[in-house]
Write a structure and sequence with these properties.
The chain is an all-alpha fold and 179 residues long. It has one domain. It is built from five helices and no strands. The chain has helices at residues 10-55, 64-88, 103-109, 113-125, 127-178. Helix 1 packs antiparallel against helix 2 (64-88) and helix 2 (64-88) runs antiparallel to helix 5 (127-178). The chain is elongated, with a radius of gyration of 26 Å. The model has no long low-confidence stretch (mean pLDDT 87).
Length: 179
């Protein structure tokens, strides 16, 4: 049986584009939700640590060991929060060709609204250029999604690492005060 190469109609191509954009935007939202949850978790954790810290007997001596462990904990917490915030502040990619579907290029490159509207109408009439710009936009937002996922992964990794010194600190305090 001979395989037929059926080309997509213009409407089908646009459906694929919008489905791809929707999928990538979902990935971006997912990263931002995860980063927000991590920041919220740290808000709760640091609130509990502060509350417990102010309620602990003032006889607690902060020896060198506890100070070092506490600094390591703060280091990992700071890194985790940094990567979470970085997820909310993606870098605008300006090294690519100007694109009529990229909000930054629309307002910085295509002049007043009348010029933009005219050039946009011309783009819609040129199928090859239109699909080229749509593909470029998919690539750029995919780069942003990839960076956000990397930032969230780094944040989660540092979150996990921060539990090690926290646990060591709690164990050391319990041993020092109760045993």
């Amino acid at each position: 049986m001979e395989k037929q190469n059926k080309k997509l109609a213009a409407e089908e191509k646009l459906e694929v584009y919008w489905a791809t954009i929707g999928y990538i935007n979902g990935l971006n939202r997912s990263s931002e939700i995860k980063a927000g949850l991590i920041i919220s978790f740290y808000g709760l954790l640091l609130g509990v640590v502060f509350q417990l810290g102010t309620g602990i007997d003032s006889n607690l001596e902060l020896n060198v060991f506890l100070l070092i462990v506490l600094l390591i904990f703060i280091f990992f917490v700071s890194r985790s929060i940094y990567f979470s915030f970085k997820c909310f502040l993606p870098q605008i990619e300006t090294k690519f060709d100007k694109n009529m579907f990229f909000f930054h290029d629309v307002v910085t490159h295509f002049g007043p609204i009348s010029r933009f509207s005219g050039e946009f109408m011309d783009l819609l009439d040129d199928e090859e250029k239109l699909y080229g710009q749509l593909g470029e936009q998919i690539y750029v937002i995919s780069l942003i999604a990839s960076k956000k996922f990397s930032d969230v992964n780094n944040s989660v990794r540092n979150l996990v690492y921060s539990f090690i010194p926290l646990l060591v600190c709690v164990i050391a305090i319990v041993i020092e005060n109760f045993l």
